[in-house]
Amino acid sequence: xxxxxxxxxxSFRRGGAGAGLVFLLAFAAGLIPVQAQSVSQKQVLxxxxxVSDWQWQQFDDDSNLFTGYxxxxxxxxxxxxxxxxxxxxxxxxxxxxRYAQLAEELGNDEHLKRLKAIAQDSRYLFAPxxxxxxxxxxxxxxxxxxEEYQEPGMITPLRVIFDQILNSPPSVDLRFERxxxxxxxxxxxxxxxxxxxxxSYVPCKNRWCWADALFMxxxxxxxxxxxxxxxxxxxxxxxxxxxxxDLLWDEEDHLFFRDTRFFDKREPNGEKVIWARGxxxxxxxxxxxLEQLPADYAERPRYEDIFRKLMARLxxxxxxxxxxxxxVLAPETQPYKETSGTALMAFAYASGIHQGVLDKAxxxxxLLSAWEGLTGAIHSSGKLGWVQQIAASPDSVDEDDSQIxxxxxxxxxxxxxxxxxxxxxxxxxxxx
Length: 432
Prior knowledge:
The protein is mainly alpha-helical.
């Protein structure tokens, strides 16, 4: 984004009432590039089909694993991150389930059937760490399937896990610390292992002590509260969510730190280290939470307020090509296109507009610019590139880098954008 626009955004970085006006004036003055104004539902659908088709070509139905990857994709069979019920797969399934529901409405139930077969083969179970949001995030897939098929067994394991958490809630400190111990017998570092996979031990991850968790955890709790009518799930999620916000929310810049290790870190330009995918997880997580919160829920205005502030601030950091760089406040330090963080933020704008929480005139140009950037990062084969690999901070990215969590985020964005365009079409008909 140009220096002129950045200065305009600085005037409302606290998300004040004039944010929309400033953005519109800048847009009208030509300071913000007009992009993707002609995007159509057909184009959006074609993009999602190409990306999902390529991704499924990498899937092994016998193992329920994505196996056709480059070595750089970190899908190692010994890595806890690549557990088939872990967060990497869960983030993909969240987006894939949304797209599958849309595809079914359009006459294609192939994707839903495939997701159901995968979930059945997994027996609706989870990765091993029941208190860790990364390992129960896949519960979102089971909830989506339950809403589609109304089979109680689809969410029985999820309820058992969450009831255990409610009965024995964690009380660990939220400060981030990776615990490493040496065996008194061998002198080797000890770690958690499950089915041949290595899981690092971070005690605070028994709660939501890192930004990513706000995408992985609370939307599942709020959704389960809705489908079961059990208010305990909503009360717990609300309580824990605000503990995390109190910890990681930066009131000065209206952004989220990734975790407590980043409070005092600074970029070469003096700005705070705000990781695009980390804050993207929060933005998309907030959008998903709002989708599940009842309109009359007493705490809902607090969620809407922090969501609006965050999205106003992020709009000011978007670059002229539609992307957010890996380091949000220091784009020059990692000057790469990055699709995972960008797609998560784009979905948050699309969902916020769709829900009426974000002003459409203000933020639709941000969304469309991001979508144009994302589509330009897709290879002719359908492979989504420019994905920062599994990490916890800004890092370099290459056009060949891909990962399934970014595909999930793109499908979330595309599905919501398709629905927004459907609404526009309906409004045009009614106006006629």
